[in-house]
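Quick question: what would this complex look like in 3D?
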Amino acid sequence: MRSLSVPSSPVRDLLALTSRPEVISFAGGLPAPELFDLDGLRAAADRALTRRTLQYAPTEGDADLREQVAARLTARGLPTRPDELLITTGSQQALTLVVTALLEPGSVVAVEEPTYLAALQCFHLAGARVVAVPGDERGIDPVALAEVVERDRPELLYLVPTFANPTGRTLDAERRAEVLRVAERSGLRVLEDDPYSELRYRGDAVPALAASSDLVLHLGTFSKIGAPGLRVGWLRAPEELMPALVVTKQAADLHTSAFDQAVVADYLRESDLDAHVRRLCATYRERRDALVGALAAVLPEGAVRTDPDGGMFVWVRLPGEVDAAVVLRRALERDVAFVPGASFYAGEPDRATMRLSFTTGAPEVIREGVRRLGEVL
Amino acid sequence: MRSLSVPSSPVRDLLALTSRPEVISFAGGLPAPELFDLDGLRAAADRALTRRTLQYAPTEGDADLREQVAARLTARGLPTRPDELLITTGSQQALTLVVTALLEPGSVVAVEEPTYLAALQCFHLAGARVVAVPGDERGIDPVALAEVVERDRPELLYLVPTFANPTGRTLDAERRAEVLRVAERSGLRVLEDDPYSELRYRGDAVPALAASSDLVLHLGTFSKIGAPGLRVGWLRAPEELMPALVVTKQAADLHTSAFDQAVVADYLRESDLDAHVRRLCATYRERRDALVGALAAVLPEGAVRTDPDGGMFVWVRLPGEVDAAVVLRRALERDVAFVPGASFYAGEPDRATMRLSFTTGAPEVIREGVRRLGEVL
């Protein structure tokens, strides 16, 4: 029987920190609830509730939703047919389905270091061996990746190439081509986790990796552009993998909520999601600027922080041998929270790192939070 | 890398049979859509859509829903605290979570023969070895179970003890006590899958196995009493298993749709679900009677069929060496469908068996379907 001593996820434990109302939290990765399009979603829900959407439904997903998502991906530069899509219960489920269908205990997964911790946990739960590949401000290092491929023979490369969690970094176009050359050379499958790319606050879009190679599985979600409570995500996968993924999805939950799928399909069709995303971007841009600007004034000499073009996160490295977990404990005494970066490492963690999310606070709240943080630093 | 030749589930392939409108289908396991409480659910959905229910939510489930479900289980004779419950994306997910958290490749699972085929598939996907235990009209045979426990040392016993899928049989109270004695003697955990027990058309309720032993994990669902499209189920588990189950659930999909959970919580609180279940039972009782009565007139001498006290299924064994798959092919030519029983066997299948669901047809449609079936038989 599998050990029951599995530790609970750091994300989960940290969510507890943010529940005290007096805490200004940079710890979450939540969209701003005041920006949810409540009226648009209410109208969609009202139209979507029918006898059909209350009944069992196909495992692959609602036909209308697959069409809407395929059209949106295609319009954004990733040509997609509805039958290349599997609708999932959030993109977290897509991640688990890919892991279950493609990996087995002992399989090797390569990841950029640092990376999304729920992905790391997913790989560990599957008994996979995770190998860290270093990166820099331009994203994962293709030369280091080639060495890892040579040495460790990974079966999967997991990346958040655009506005990465936790660093906010984007893999640039040149590096994308190099990463794909390495992948193509060895037949390495790539899992492109893409929850944030619509949240761009400056610069031009970089094409999805999946647009250039059939080795790429692409994960998307309604959680960041719409609402996460509905748990609607999607997986765009090569045709030959789809049967195994569908069987795995069927065992997982038969299908994603037919009602929620219909709500999202209706919303994508009837609402102006582009206008909504522009509103999100305008607000989040201000909040990013507030965080990045305020940090500049309080971070000690020698600290490094990212200034992301989009997404939800700023990544900070404090100078010297500071442990950010100790900083967090003291920060919580001053009612401010963030996530120590160590949890995002597959290999030896850099304990002087911190992840700060800027999406849920108004600029003045962000500035007050950073002021409190400055007292600790 | 895991083989991608996993066969698609028989349930799935068979659902395709039922889509031609001229087919009278006994093949499904669907609730009758015309009985969905559309108005009640619409009112609940309207109240449930808020900024809170559009946001990320706790993995364990909505606090209000856990309270409502705990109260309902307690009122039905299974004393339950909210913190003993994990809300899942349908009870199919609960099944997969239990399998993932408790079993590993090579683990042995004992099942009543025949049993729910999606459970069998779940166990096979996990690499478990499934051992069949025979039963009769009173349910699984405790003596045969004791022999299997002695010989194969299973880690889990999976049962649908009330109105079983596919047979419609119920494990009687005396046998329940015997099964639990066998389990307690060897520390065998029992997974009690209980989707149907509220759909009782005659006789008195039999207490849930989970009411008598801490070795029992209990699965329930809103799918059969409410609506399956919402994908809301629950797992009642012993305290010491909960941490591992929650971590597994988090990796699976972070949490079940917060919106759907709020819809169901509101519905359980504000609607008269007992009255709705009485309406379901009145209609399904008529449909069961129509099927059982009509079959009596067309089944050949020597055929055996169940006459279930509740649930959704009648189980037939044809006399002699008939293959029900051949019967199905001929039945489809006459626009009538059912599920050949062979898929429900973990061991050597009895190919002369058939599962017929009576929930989705009006009595006159059921009688016409059985008449067509009679032409084939």
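Answer marked as accepted. Residues 62 and 261 of chain A are 6 Å apart (CA to CA).
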